Amino acid sequence: MLLNLTIFVALAVLTFSLVFLLSRSASGDRTVRARVVNLHLKSGEMLGDDVPQFLKQTKLSEFIWLDHILQQWNLAHQIRLLLAQAESNWTVLMVLTACLVSAGVGYGVSYIWVPDFSVDIIIAILFGALPFFLLQWKKKRRMRRFDQGLPDAIDLIVRALRAGHSVSAAIELVGEEAVEPVRSEFREVYKQQNFGLPHREALLQLARRMPSSDLQFMLTAMLVQKETGGNLVDILDRTTTVIRERMRIEGEVRIYTAQGRLTGAILAALPIIMFFLINLANNGYSRILIEDPLGRRLISAGLGSMLVGGLIIRKIVNVKV
Questions:
Q1: Highest CATH level, class, for 142-246
Q2: How far is CA 162 from its chain centroid?
Q3: Mean pLDDT across the chain, nearest whole number?
């Protein structure tokens, strides 16, 4: 049986490698395609039917039949949007293949340690979700950097407006002088306006690409001022003050809740780590717990209790500002 699992994992890795190699094209074609796809993603076609599309729909795969399937699958579009938000050079096909390979590896490892079908399936699902967890982590890290650089970008817009520049010129200035990833996102807004996309739609697409509450607050203030009038400089000044104050309070809350978050992580990881370490030191030690029906019920009850406890701790430490 171990030989069969080894062959299965080897075939899965080989399949992933072949698909990756067959999907690759020439270096020049990849460069051009990367630029076009990036521009297409940042045009915000996922905003909905009320926002005009900036470019035609691009391919999700080099294979026509596979591209047709992925185009009909809403999850593929969500993955592509996630890749753009995480600023990853992966493709939708690479993400899906990585999920399948990870699920196969997880099933094989779980079958060696815990030969129970239901447990093996759960482990395989968790391993299969690892690429999504990685992309979500990269997205959150990028969003955090964006939120940290946004107040300075707003100050730059305010100074440009006070100097007599237009809003479009102020956005161009942010796209040249701000820190990443604020610079690249505002540069994309300026490019879209130059290509003829209305100001409102360009800002809405920015909000779609960067789902930040601070950015939503800023864009709402700008769009409301454009519709109703008022002093945009004063509005943005107050917006910057509110954002910086909120960031300060969030930092204090994270400090006060650090112990609770660390406790929750330790309590959630400790039983699982100890289970594998004990089985590593004494193979078959927990076999009776897995094979006996009462033991399986105890495992299910323990996992359920851990899940409920983790949700309660998360609810306590997740303070909204």
A1: mainly alpha
A2: 36
A3: 76
